Amino acid sequence: MDSFVVQTTQRNEMVDVTPEVRAALARSGLRDGFGVIFCPHSTAALTLNEHFDPAVVQDMVAWLNRAAPPVPVETGFQDHGANSDAHIKATLIGPGLTLLVEDGNLTLGRWQSIILCEFNGPRQRTIQMKWVGQRGPA
Amino acid sequence: MDSFVVQTTQRNEMVDVTPEVRAALARSGLRDGFGVIFCPHSTAALTLNEHFDPAVVQDMVAWLNRAAPPVPVETGFQDHGANSDAHIKATLIGPGLTLLVEDGNLTLGRWQSIILCEFNGPRQRTIQMKWVGQRGPA
Amino acid sequence: MDSFVVQTTQRNEMVDVTPEVRAALARSGLRDGFGVIFCPHSTAALTLNEHFDPAVVQDMVAWLNRAAPPVPVETGFQDHGANSDAHIKATLIGPGLTLLVEDGNLTLGRWQSIILCEFNGPRQRTIQMKWVGQRGPA
User: Fold this and answer.
1) Hey, which residues does A30 pair with through a beta bridge?
2) Over the Cα atoms of chain A, what is R_g?
3) Do C42 and B49 lie within an 8 Å CB cutoff?
């Protein structure tokens, strides 16, 4: 298993980790197969989306904050840790991605970046990866 | 990697692609293992749900449109591409599915169809697939 | 393929199935690889989240019920089966998880439990699993 660590800087933040994942894929030597990318945290998540135009992830954070506002803004949330909004956002988006690999490259679409979604930062977050399939020289 | 293309016809649309995925599974010859089904687009997604009663996906589209209305309906969205609602919907639902295969068949439940969720159509959408495990004659 | 059955007791319920999944992993003998955990139902789902503090999943259920209230509470839902809320919740959360395995253990974070999300119970729900990779004695 390979992994890397991301230091987030805000409570809610969308961090493009595509370069780190691509570097791990190159380290693995995988030519054809798939990668499982996993976030072992209950208040963070992984998604694919556009990161080129920063307005897209800003709008996504704004939408999530409005949909699941922080405690205790009239939510009636009972969690004494006061981070139920973060747990809900994490479950809505999900903890992992399975990505396809062809000719040593991810098959991501042009507008798909791999985004670590921080909902309870700033924290250090780990991303774990396994690369499965045929390895070999390019 | 196998793939197929779907031509969607509306901005928001739920298209049952189970027959196309089953045909790809048959082409692969996989008897026992799993398939990774992937949508390389940032304003479309893949889910499993009931498609037999059309009211279910109609209600799902209606719910998503109310939860994330199109710009600029009092959302304050900043994306100049005016499709932040589509990006948000895609991230909520997710870009891929990993499905189990037994005896050459998907292990889907009786009421589970594979649904391409279009949120920024009409467009041509590609679905990519890899089938992993034991192959052989039936 | 391995599987187990869960009897749920409420319409909306979050059931910690981590012990059952860990038992299946032990049965498989997998040392290094991954598991695909799949829920073959269109009104239930699987997620990872904290289950130690019961307030977290209570808040999650409360949030989901407020976001997608049962028919016909002013939703205009058309599904005559009157369970569109359950289908929507299931699609938002998703039908499966791919989990990494190292040294015979899941790599889950400290606060991640595997949670079966019931949205149309009480029912009997099946969880299917495949474990892929290197097997062997500890």
Assistant:
1) A135
2) 16
3) yes
* Domains defined for chain A, CATH in brackets: 2-135 (2.60.120.460)
> What pLDDT is recorded for position B82?
74
Q: How many CB atoms lie within 10 A of CB C65?
A: 15
Q: Which residue of A has its CA nearest to C116?
A: A91
**Strand-by-strand arrangement of the C2-7 sheet:** C2-7, C124-135, C30-38, C96-102, C105-106
Instruction: Count CB-CB contacts under 10 A for residue B10.
Output: 11
Tell me the torsion sign for CA atoms B117, B119, B124, B125.
Answer: negative
Task: Give the confidence band of A6 by pLDDT, cuts at 50, 70, 90.
Answer: very high
C-beta atoms surrounding C54 within 10 Å = 12
Q: Report the candidate in B39, B54, B47, B20 with the shortest Cα–Cα distance to residue B124.
A: B39
Residue B80 DSSP code: T
Whether residue B115 contacts residue B15, with contact meaning beta carbons closer than 8 Å, is answered with yes
Identity of residue B36: V
Question: Å from A99 to nearest chain B CA?
Answer: 8
Instruction: Summarize pLDDT for C39-67 with one digit per residue, the tens.
Output: 999 999 999 999 998 889 999 999 999 89
The answer, for B47 touching chain A at a CB cutoff of 8 Å, is no
Can you tell me whether residue B14 is helix, strand or coil? strand
B34-63 burial, b if ≥16 CB within 10 A, otherwise e?
Answer: bbbbbbbbbbbbbbbbbbebebbbebbbbb
Are the beta carbons of B112 and C84 separated by less than 8 Å? no
- Is 0.90 topped by the overall pTM? yes
A29 torsion bin: left (phi>0), alpha (psi -120 to 50), beta (else): left
Q: Tokens 């991303």 sit at which residue?
A: A127
With contact defined as beta carbons under 8 Å apart, do A77 and A61 qualify? no
Handedness of CA C86, C92, C96, C101 (dihedral sign): negative
Name the residue among B36, B42, B68 with its Cβ closest to that of A48.
B42
One-letter amino acid of A84 = S
**Cβ count near B109 (within 10 Å):** 20
Average pLDDT of chain B, as a whole number: 92
Q: Which DSSP string corresponds to B50-61?
A: --SSHHHHHHHH
Cβ pair A48:B95 closer than 8 A: yes
Q: Which of B75, B80, B91 is closest, CB to CB, to A49?
A: B91
Tell me the per-residue pLDDT of B28-47, one tens digit each, with 9 for 90 and over. Answer: 999 999 999 999 999 999 99
Task: Evaluate if residue B100 carries a pLDDT over 70.
Answer: yes
